[in-house]
Amino acid sequence: MRSTAPRVPVLLVAANLVTLAVTLAVNALANALPLNGRTTGEISDGFPNLFAPAGYVFAIWGPIYLGLTAFAVWQLTHAGRRGHAVVDVGWWFALSNIANALWIVFWHLGRFPATMAAMLVVLVSLCAIAARLGPPRAARSAAERWLVYLPFSVYLGWISVATIANAGVFLLDLGWNGAPLSPAAWTLMLLAVSSALGAWLLLRRGDLAYLAVLVWAFIGIWAKQSGVSGTSAASGTPGVPSVAYGALAAAGVLAALAVWRAVDGRRSGPAGRGARSLAPGT
């Protein structure tokens, strides 16, 4: 274990603050104007993408940006400047912010291949941050747990879902219809793969926050495809029952796994350190 606390470079702190501010501004203006005449959600609804959840699910961006802002402010404190977390996050956060802002611009301009590239940069950046930080139980304090590990776990969970949805839009824009499989079959396969990844991260890293985001997204897919949210009807695209049931089943399995992990962690006592920090995920 490292015995000396590193000093966080001032340039890194400034880059994190500035790039996050730019990202927030671009996201807000893109929908307020709106950029190129359509909101982000309206563009998404224009594609028959079965993996895209109901519109209300995208409200998760509020907590994500709130968490990232909390991290950006925390890095200015004594604990943030003298701790390891900001250094571990490194320049990857600033890179993800730049890619996020570019994604918004590309999305509104209809440059879907470019959106795919930008989304992958965000995903890779967040994966690098997760790898450098380690599992949530590695947090050195409650502040790190809530202001560093939790925001980035939630962000990574959502970007994992968003990357798959973005890939669907990219392929639809190219005119690919999923042959030889049906769109529903592809979606069910992606739900299975996403669920397996979430389960693996829970068992390997104890990341409940990541899993919770998947459950949130899958319930949103169920709501859209079952007609509960009214999104499919409003867009003129009929729901697909098999996808709705598959998404609900995946959400149920992951939720049950999370409960089992939480209960098992508590039973293990001191040996299961993650049981003492369930809020951000262990």
From TrEMBL:
Protein's UniProt name: Tryptophan-rich sensory protein
Annotated TM spans: 54-77, 89-109, 115-134, 146-172, 184-203, 208-223, 243-263
Keyword annotations: Membrane, Transmembrane, Transmembrane helix
Membrane listed as a keyword: yes
PANTHER family in the cross-refs: SI:CH211-161H7.5-RELATED, XK-RELATED PROTEIN
Record-linked InterPro entries: TspO/MBR-related_sf
Entry keyword annotation includes Membrane: yes
